[in-house]
Design a protein that fits this description.
- Two copies of one chain form a homodimer.
- The first copy, chain A, is α/β, with parallel strands linked by helices.
- Chain A has a domain of about 240 residues: Type I PLP-dependent aspartate aminotransferase-like (Major domain) (Aspartate Aminotransferase, domain 2).
- In chain A, about 45% of the residues lie in helices and about 15% in strands.
- In chain A, the strands form two sheets. A seven-stranded mixed sheet of chain A has the order 1-7-6-5-4-2-3, with helices on both faces. A four-stranded antiparallel sheet of chain A has the order 8-9-11-10.
- The longest helix of chain A is centred in the C-terminal third of the chain and has 35 residues.
- Chain A is globular, with a radius of gyration of 23 Å.
- At the A-B interface, helix 1, helix 2, helix 3, helix 4 and helix 5 of A face helix 1, helix 2, helix 3, helix 4 and helix 5 of B.
Amino acid sequence: MSPEEFRHYGKQVVDWIADYLAGIEQYPVRSRARPGEVRAMLPAHPPERGEPYEQVLADMDRVILPGITHWQHPNFFAYFPANASGPGILGDLLSSGLGVQGMVWATSPACTELETVAVDWLAELLGLPDHFRTDSAGGGVIQDSASSAALVAVLAALRRAEGTTKRIYVSSQTHSALEKAARIAGIGSQNVRTVDVHPETLEMDPARLRTLIDEDVAAGLTPALVCATIGTTSTTAIDPVRAIGEICRERGIWLHVDAAYAGVAAVCPELRWINDGVAEYVDSYATNPHKWLLTNFDCGVLWVRDRAPMINALSILPEFLRNAATESGQVIDYRDWQVPLGRRFRALKLWSVIRWYGAEGLREHIRTGIALAQRFASLVAAEPDFEVRGHHPFGLVCFRPLRTDVLELMERVNASGALYLSHTKVGDEVWLRMAIGAPTTTEAHVDAAWAALRAAAQSR
Amino acid sequence: MSPEEFRHYGKQVVDWIADYLAGIEQYPVRSRARPGEVRAMLPAHPPERGEPYEQVLADMDRVILPGITHWQHPNFFAYFPANASGPGILGDLLSSGLGVQGMVWATSPACTELETVAVDWLAELLGLPDHFRTDSAGGGVIQDSASSAALVAVLAALRRAEGTTKRIYVSSQTHSALEKAARIAGIGSQNVRTVDVHPETLEMDPARLRTLIDEDVAAGLTPALVCATIGTTSTTAIDPVRAIGEICRERGIWLHVDAAYAGVAAVCPELRWINDGVAEYVDSYATNPHKWLLTNFDCGVLWVRDRAPMINALSILPEFLRNAATESGQVIDYRDWQVPLGRRFRALKLWSVIRWYGAEGLREHIRTGIALAQRFASLVAAEPDFEVRGHHPFGLVCFRPLRTDVLELMERVNASGALYLSHTKVGDEVWLRMAIGAPTTTEAHVDAAWAALRAAAQSR
């Protein structure tokens, strides 16, 4: 495809996306496709001859859109948001257009240096400590996800710890990515200890953590890492980082904070309390601009206080990557900060988002989501047939109907296509999760979602 | 950013990319930026207020382009190609515009099903065996890179093998990603055994492999995986997959094939010989359409003969991802086929590329690259001051000057900006690597590159 053909089709694709975003409310939020339905509409064999790109776009409408669950729909309230935004899309497009490989500094200096600037900017926007900035022993890096960030943290912690059998500590509310990381890293699920949580707040119990660590040390095992979560996936519970951190410091244990969803809320100074203890005690911290901060997936940021154990765990320098800049020690080679070797120029989208919205715009986006969540919680609280469960300092409100089967109610509203929400289990209870945070969601959407839920509960 | 603003700026970005691609030859191939230079041109702090997107585009020209090493330049001959193409960029753009999360089938059925179709199509295009197709016990999946594909293969193999100390086997020419995978997976570099290669062809020596395996088994260790490479990074050497496979079959060892660069050449029937033994003996096979097959990074494909050990190694199902489709067993949840949980809709770019070029166009692209490499090799062979080293069945030609210091010559031509090539070490010799394969590279570019190399050697 020549540059002129690209210019021609590129504008068609931009129009297609603009039309899609402008008209997104016409689609059922959750796809109604049945297993195999999309596949059955596609040819079993690849084409022998090339086709005009118009045919791809026609199939986007005919085949792909009916199989899409619309994560950018203003009535998408399931999981957490995976915010896309105009500048996020454009930053990704610039990255695809340049087509560079940023595996080491020398293979495209701007790819590495813009990433350093963007993650340093983000650390400043979130009020994270100076020792997470690149002009320190630590620094930040863009990962594809908080799962990969957790794996990198686990590998660094295992590298730093000395002992034959190493263990990591999570709570019953910690994301499954930590157990997956332990399995990938070869210590296995049997070396992941699960700390009890407070039955109401669902926060990790530091006293219980201390007991488990003491037991393990007495048994000759090596505690390597504790994962504290700021904003759990299930209910946005916040572990007591300071109290956990004191234990980790005493014992020399790596403290990782998984703030995948909620961490970006700290762009608002009034929410910086969520990071209490991070500056003093935390070795690594992950949050995902690709969830609630308007930056297209994939863009998760991991900061470390000391980059040495991570690089020791992940660095191998083959001959074909030797170069003067690496040998000078003056540059960062981000390939040593992640699992794969190759890297896209992901910093362009984070940089685009921060510049387009500015600190002001990012704060406004977060505050809007929180205000809508408060509004929704008030609506639920005022209705005797429902109750709000847990706290809701961010965009997620957990609640449940009192006179209707929860999952049956959820399936009914999700099947309607009018909105899409998800569920979680806490103890013996099933809760609905209403995760608000799309940039297009307004009070009218939240009110309509509530009306639909209420009507569904009444019409059982 | 509203859909209309996106429409407006999107077209500006498309124009920017089209202009960049049309004018790419005006730039020095390798960036001349010194460490810190790009960063110094950017503000130390993020903007408080948002900025118009024009300012980002202005900084693309002013700050970013001088820091770019132009991987899409027709005179980029370093590493292997990382082909971008118009349809690849457009497929990525559609993915960004939809902004869906394909972690499980239920979160966007089309994202999973199009991926299944695209990797099945690619298996057919490459003549890979039916048991790599999705309607079998095996199947294919898009990974970010061959490094991650190798890690997944190692994890599956470690899961399948029974024993306390497990080992993997590579050659001295195997990509460092395998050693990195062993370190990540917790078996460590000490359990990676390096098999000698034939001194001329640089192929793994199967007799030596057998000896190492026998030694290890006698010592009570468990051989878990052998990695054979089809087209090594250093010189595109091809390990004898059939002979290695016979040993693996006898001993029940997982055989992974890393065909990251060269595997896609099998779109041409006359090159299918490279996969001799794959149908009979191979458990997993990785190749990267993002190298030589016109699909923007990241798009690496991994096929497995039996998906069960991989899924057993990687699957954890938290409550919030439970859904009827998963429980029915009728769908694929690709999150269990990879390290991270989240996934972009990467199939769109592979699908776009296959449809735009067709099988015919893809074959023509590969054949053009090979013909240019043959041409370059002939030019080198005709010059008494240079010699061609190793074979060159693909787009890579290794060679060396006989009367000039190799690295000094390389640095001189790379610093000129006219072309960019890389080096490798084989035994005591340093070889230059001329990797041809950009869709814009023509005979004129290859001839000019040779003229520049020859002139530099003469002007020493």
